[in-house]
Design a protein that fits this description.
- The chain is of the alpha/beta class and 498 residues long.
- It has 20 helices and 18 strands.
- It binds adenosine-5'-triphosphate and magnesium ion (MG).
- Adenosine-5'-triphosphate binds next to helix 8 and helix 16.
C-alpha cells in the first residue's frame, strides 16, 4: 500500500490524466502487485479498480492470457512487416508482460488477444529506482485492430496520393500545355506526333467519328506551329450552302453577282499566312474540288469576279468523319485532291476504343463544370465504372455534355452510377418512351432527390413530347421557358451539343 501512496503522491496528476487516455494502462510494483489501472483498463478487462488494485497481476491475467507470445524486445514491433502475424513471434510465453519484465529487467512487448478478442500489443516498461532496482512496471495495451484501421485509412490516403501523383506526372510528362487530354496509346502517339508535324507545312488529314476531337487536334497542330501567331480559320464545308461556298472560300469583287454591292475577303484570304481547317471536307462539292486543288498547287487564287491573282501562303489541315477513300473509289471525291490533302493522315479512334481516356476526360470536364456552375462534385468509383461501360456513340463531345448535366442535376456532391446510367440512357425525344408519369428507373433504394429528378425529367419529357416547344411546355407546366429549356438540356431531353 506504501507504493500506492507513493505513486498517488508523486504521480497524481499523471495518473489522473491517464484516466482520460483510451489506451488501457496498468502499473505493478516490484512484486507484480497492481498499484494502478486507468479507466480504459477497467473497461477492457471488466474489473473494477478496487478489484484490481492490490492483486498480483498474474492472478488477474490468468483468465485473460490464454495465449500470448512474447516478442524479442529488440525487434521493433511496429516496424516489423509481419506485425499482425502471430506465427512470426516465436517465443511463446505464459506469463504476463509485466512479470516478464520483472524477471528480465528489460522492456517487453507481446502480441495477445484482449478479452473482446481484439489483437493487442502489450508493452511493459521497467521503472528503476536510484539503486537500479525495478520499483514499478508500467504497462500499456495498444489495440492493433485500431492500428490496422488507421493503417487502412493511411493506405487509402496513400492510394489517393498515388492517383494524384500519377495525374501530376501525366500532366508533366504528357499534357504540358496540350488541350488534348488522354493517356491511351493512340492519344499519346498523336500527342507526340503533333510537334513533329506542326513545324512542317505538310497537309494533314484528320480522320475520326463525330466528337472524337478532330478540331482539338487541328488547333494543337496550329498552336505548336510557327504560324501560331497568325490566324486559324475554320471553313465548315457542310455548313455553307453549295451555291455560296466558292465566294465564302475565295471572296468576291464588287458586282461579281447580284447582291455583291462591295467586295469581300474569302476565308482563304483571311487565313493567309496562317492555318486553314477545311472541316467536313467530305462535304466539299465535286465541282469545287478541282478549283481547290489548283489553288493549293499554285499557291494563288482569285476572288470571284476578280482578275487579280492573290498569293496564298496557308497551311491546310482537313478533317472528316467520312471514309474518303471509299468516296474516292465511288467517284464522290477526287483522288488527286485526296492525295494532296492526305500527306499526313491522323486517325483518332472512337472513345469506346480508348477507355483509359474516359477517367481523365471526365475529371477534366468535372473540374471545368464545377468551376462554371460553382459546384464541388466528385464521381464515385461506381460512377466512373458506369462512364467507362457506356459506349459513347457521340464520343468525347457526348461525355463532355453528360458531365455538364451531371454537375447541374442533383444536390448531392457525389455523382453516383445511377445518375450516370440515367444521363447516358437513350434519350432522344422521338424515342418511344411510355406515356405514364412513373419513370422506369424509380426504385425503393433511390435517394429521394434522385427520384424527384427522375419524375421531373419524365414530366418535362412528356410535356415537350405533347406540346413540342419549350414555350408551350412551360405554359402547360406553369413554369417559365428558360427554366424548362435549362432543365430539358440538363436532363438530356434536348440535345444541345456544344
Ligand atoms: N482529347 C480531348 N481532350 C479534351 N477535350 C476533347 C478531346 N476530344 C474532344 N474534346 C472536346 O469534345 C468536344 C468535341 O471535340 P471536337 O469538336 O474536336 O470533335 P470533332 O471530332 O471535331 O467533332 P465533329 O466531327 O462533330 O466536328 C469539344 O468540346 C472538345 O473540346
Ligand atoms: Mg469538328
Amino acid at each position: 500500500m506504501d507504493n500506492i501512496q507513493l505513486l498517488r503522491c508523486e504521480d497524481l496528476s499523471a495518473c489522473t490524466i491517464s484516466d482520460f487516455i483510451d489506451t488501457p494502462i496498468h502499473i505493478v510494483d516490484n512484486k507484480g502487485i497492481v498499484v494502478f489501472v486507468n479507466h480504459a483498463w477497467v473497461n477492457a478487462y471488466k474489473l473494477e479498480k478496487v478489484e484490481a488494485i492490490g492483486k498480483p497481476i498474474e492472478e488477474l491475467m490468468k483468465n485473460q492470457l490464454k495465449y500470448f507470445m512474447s516478442i524479442n524486445n529488440k525487434n521493433n514491433l511496429l516496424n516489423n512487416k509481419s506485425e499482425y502475424d502471430y506465427t512470426y513471434y516465436r517465443n511463446y510465453s505464459t506469463k504476463s508482460a509485466a512479470t516478464e519484465v520483472l524477471q528480465k529487467k528489460e522492456k517487453v512487448s507481446m502480441v495477445t488477444l484482449s478479452p473482446d478478442q481484439r489483437n493487442v500489443v502489450v508493452t511493459s516498461t521497467p521503472i528503476f529506482d536510484a539503486n537500479n532496482e525495478i520499483s514499478f512496471v508500467f504497462t500499456f495495451i495498444q489495440d492493433l485492430t485500431k492500428t490496422s484501421e488507421l493503417k487502412e485509412k493511411l493506405e487509402n490516403e496513400i492510394q489517393k496520393n498515388k492517383a494524384l501523383l500519377s495525374k501530376l506526372k501525366y500532366y508533366k510528362e504528357n499534357k504540358r500545355d496540350s488541350k488534348l487530354i488522354g493517356d491511351s496509346k493512340s492519344i499519346r502517339d498523336i500527342r507526340s506526333l503533333i510537334p513533329v508535324v506542326a513545324i512542317t507545312d505538310a497537309s494533314i488529314l484528320i480522320l475520326g467519328d463525330s466528337g472524337v476531337g478532330k478540331e482539338v487536334v487541328a488547333k494543337e497542330i496550329y498552336s505548336n506551329s510557327e504560324r501560331s501567331d497568325k490566324p486559324f480559320v475554320t471553313l465548315n464545308c457542310s455548313a455553307i450552302p453549295e451555291s455560296l461556298l466558292e465566294s465564302e472560300m475565295f471572296g468576291y469583287e464588287k458586282g461579281a453577282f447580284t447582291g455583291a454591292v462591295k467586295s469581300k475577303e474569302g476565308l482563304f484570304e483571311v487565313a493567309n499566312g496562317g492555318t486553314l481547317l477545311l472541316d467536313e471536307i467530305g462535304s466539299m462539292p465535286l465541282q469545287l474540288q478541282p478549283k481547290i486543288l489548283r489553288v493549293l498547287q499554285e499557291n494563288e487564287f482569285m476572288r470571284v469576279g476578280g482578275t487579280r491573282k492573290i498569293p496564298l501562303d496557308v497551311r491546310i489541315i482537313s478533317a472528316t468523319n467520312e471514309n474518303l477513300l471509299t468516296m474516292v473509289k465511288s467517284g464522290k471525291f477526287r483522288s488527286d485532291l485526296f492525295y494532296r490533302l492526305n500527306v499526313i493522315p491522323i486517325k483518332i479512334p472512337p472513345l469506346k476504343d480508348r477507355i483509359e481516356d474516359i477517367k481523365l476526360l471526365a475529371v477534366e470536364f468535372l473540374d471545368k463544370y464545377n468551376e462554371k456552375y460553382g459546384k464541388n462534385k466528385t464521381l464515385d468509383e461506381k460512377a466512373l465504372l458506369a462512364l467507362e461501360h457506356h459506349n459513347w456513340p457521340g464520343n468525347v463531345r457526348e461525355l463532355k455534355n453528360a458531365i455538364e448535366r451531371l454537375v447541374i442535376i442533383g444536390d448531392q456532391n457525389v455523382i453516383t452510377s445511377i445518375q450516370v446510367q440515367y444521363i447516358t440512357q437513350p434519350n432522344d425525344i422521338n424515342n418511344s418512351f411510355e406515356n405514364d408519369v412513373i419513370p422506369d428507373e424509380i426504385n425503393d433504394e433511390m435517394p429521394l432527390k434522385e427520384a424527384v429528378n427522375a419524375f421531373e425529367r419524365k414530366i418535362i419529357y412528356n410535356a415537350l413530347k405533347k406540346y413540342k416547344t419549350t414555350y408551350n411546355a412551360a405554359e402547360a407546366l406553369k413554369s417559365t421557358q428558360p427554366t424548362i429549356a435549362r432543365k430539358a438540356k440538363a436532363y438530356g431531353i434536348i440535345k444541345d451539343w456544344d
